[in-house]
Amino acid sequence: MHAEPCPTCLKPVHLCVCEAVEPIDNAVFLLILQHPQEKRETLGTAQIAHLQFRNSALKVGLSWSNLKRILGREVDYKRWGVLYLGPVKQGAGPQPEVAVVDKGGNPQKDSDLVLADLEGVIVLDGTWSQAKTLWWRNPWLLKCRRIVLNPNFRSLYGQARKEPRRDSVSTLEAAAFLLSRLEAEPAILDRALKPFSLLLKKLRAPRPRPVLPPRAPAEGPAPESDGTE
Predict the structure, then answer these.
(1) Are 128 and 164 in contact (CB under 8 A)?
(2) What are phi and psi of 159, to 5 degrees?
(3) Most buried residue, 68, 79, 100, 105, by most Cβ within 10 Å?
(4) Separation of alpha carbons 106 and 129, rounded Å
């Protein structure tokens, strides 16, 4: 029988990371759309991201009719960005850490102005194929600004989880990196990743063996009677 996971971070009890959670007051809203199958992943980081950023929401499913239905309020799609999964055409010179691209994957000249005006950002949580499923099953995402990242670090996953691309990072890392740049607070990234680091540390640590109760001595054959009383 499996033990119930932690009700807060949703990790198995021996991998609970709640002690490292330090909620961050982010101005730009973070919306995480999680593929249902990803919810069962031990190494998933969507719930951690939701816990780390106070101004956030985590929704599990495959499709939603629109962003208004998710948030329960009116929205201006031009002020919402979504991390883009499609191909990006690289321009000449150094690539910006965060940029906005058009439908053809071309960097927009007014990226900085668009990013400065964002009300919220959307991150799709799941494997590469699951994230693409979420993208195509929610056509309203096409109304949002398409954001691409050029992170200057490698994912903490390392060898713990196989990723399809060398520059792939976890949902938490992508969200934290993006918000740290949008809010001009680089320290947000390291602070947000503390629970993730703890998760990987606990995962690599040997699990203590359960202490079993002492076994009762085996009962031998009854002694033979010598006929005396």
Answers:
(1) yes
(2) -90, 0
(3) 100
(4) 23
Task: Tell me the C-alpha distance between 204 and 19, whole Å.
Answer: 18
The CA-based angle 64-70-72, given to 5 degrees, is: 140
Residue tagged 């982010």 (tokens): 26
Question: 135-142 contacts: CB < 8 A, separation 24 or more?
Answer: 135/85, 137/62, 137/63, 138/33, 138/63, 138/64, 140/64, 140/65, 140/66, 140/67, 140/77, 141/82, 142/103
Q: Is the CB of residue 147 less than 8 Å from the CB of residue 178?
A: yes
Q: How far apart are CA 72 and CA 94, in angstroms?
A: 40
Query: Which of 53-57, 59-63, 156-160, 194-198 comes out lowest in average pLDDT?
Result: 156-160
Cα angle vertex 133, ends 34, 181, to 5°? 55
Tokens describing residue 211? 């202490």
> ∠166-170-174 over CA atoms, to 5°?
95
Half-sphere exposure of 90 (CA within 13 A, CB side): 8
228 Cβ contact list (under 8 Å, min separation 6) = none
Q: What are phi and psi of 183, to 5 degrees?
A: -100, 5
Q: Give 1's pLDDT tier (boundaries 50, 70, 90).
A: low
**DSSP state letter for 213:** P
pTM of the model: 0.84
Sign, CA torsion 127/130/136/137: negative
